[in-house]
Amino acid sequence: MSHLDHTPSTPGKFKIDKSPYYSRTRWHSSVAKLTLWSSLFVTFLFLFFYRSPSSSSNNPPSSDPSRRYLASATWGGAAWEKRVRTSARIRSRNGFSVLVTGAAGFVGTHVSSALKRRGDGVLGIDNFNDYYDPTLKRARQALLERGGVFIVEGDINDVALLKKLFDIVPFTHVMHLAAQAGVRYAMQNPGSYVHSNIAGFVSLLEVCKDADPQPAIVWASSSSVYGLNTKVPFSEKDRTDQPASLYAATKKAGEEIAHTYNHIYGLSLTGLRFFTVYGPWGRPDMAYFFFTKDILKGKSIPIFEAANHGTVARDFTYIDDIVKGCLGSLDTAEKSTGSGGKKKRPAQLRVFNLGNTSPVPVTDLVSILERLLKVKAKRNVMKLPRNGDVPYTHANISYAQKEFGYKATTDLQTGLKKFVRWYLSYYGDKKAVAR
Ligand SMILES: NC(=O)c1ccc[n+]([C@@H]2O[C@H](COP(=O)([O-])OP(=O)(O)OC[C@H]3O[C@@H](n4cnc5c(N)ncnc54)[C@H](O)[C@@H]3O)[C@@H](O)[C@H]2O)c1
């Protein structure tokens, strides 16, 4: 048994033997303790400043539910600022400088590359969270990088980072696409919807309202705001107060938040209600995508039926049509009217449906995929579960048509052909076993 076993728990009550050996050990042990506490203190200081939101090497706050892939995200420094500036540089007459949030996402990638191609300056921001396979987001990032678009790795809740970006670039527009998407996942991780779709949107608007000049903002709402609305086709004037999922509720909240920032601060805001977007580089959590994967793997796929064997149908909209709608909205967005956080006069506030206007039953989607893949699907017909999905969506797009000539031109057969061609080339031989 060592002598330490006899040490009482209350220091000072132990009568010590003051031998020279003991003094030396005591001196050594004091130095050791001092060293230990100093290193702990220095480590604490380092962690505090390194992770502090105002540092130039930032991570989002620890409550961030989507930070799993952010541990190594850093920003700042001369080289980084140069990349930001170069990416956002306008290369055409009357071009815009656009901050695209969610740029590594499906829609974000397509919109960013379309803007860049026509000569606008584009800077992306994305937190590369792992809601779906982040390697797909990295592949999209690589694609954009080849086209000259830099994606800053960061979270839209990181106000210090957003402010820094506006300090470097006087963005004329923000295309806000970052969000926690997906209807069913909300039952698993509700906090991620509040984090990205509500808190993140507010952080972004706070920075935009203080920016000088204030940018015009176009952002993605969703057709899901129509929820349990039964009047078809869905028009912007229809009721949107019956969301069927938390996702829909956060998008609806976004529309109300947009109204507030427009009303108080004069921010020009345009919300876009996308209807089931599909296409190359799409989202693996969406039915057309995982049906393709599962059909190729020989796995059965769930086909939902509405009440009384009713058809479930979607107004599937091809990505190129959505991109046209985004660009049309940016091009017709008026300037914000505030400065120094104050509104000078009323600013533009709009909401548009962007859909295809021809709903297709999900069973028909599967038949098209079967033909394109030359594989028979194993259909598992089941009742539509009550987890947020709605039986039917159908867009009335006359408002967007009137304002900027919006018209979808790709039918589902043509669009899926392009998707399948991309899918097979992207996943190559791995297609039958891909995730
Ligand atoms: N694809 C559709 O069918 C559809 C339909 C209606 C609405 N929308 C909306 O359109 C937008 C784009 O959708 P998508 O299909 O491209 O989705 P996506 O998930 O592919 O893209 C969203 C991107 O935002 C990023 N992101 C999420 N939270 C973030 C945060 N807090 N900070 C920084 N980045 C963050 C993600 O990493 C992702 O890359 C979303 O707002 C979505 O809700 C999409």
From TrEMBL:
Transmembrane segments: 31-50
Pfam families listed in its UniProt record: Epimerase (PF01370)
An annotated Gene Ontology molecular function: UDP-glucuronate 4-epimerase activity
Domain NAD-dependent epimerase/dehydratase: 98-334
Record's keyword annotation contains Lipid metabolism: no
Broad class of the protein's primary localization: Golgi
Intracellular or extracellular location(s): Golgi apparatus, Golgi stack membrane
InterPro entries reported in the protein's UniProt record: Epimerase_deHydtase (IPR001509), NAD(P)-bd_dom_sf (IPR036291)
EC number(s) reported in the record: 5.1.3.6
Topology of this chain in the membrane: Multi-pass membrane protein
Catalytic activity: UDP-alpha-D-glucuronate = UDP-alpha-D-galacturonate
UniProt name for this protein: UDP-glucuronate 4-epimerase
Organism: Populus euphratica (Euphrates poplar)
Gene: LOC105120800
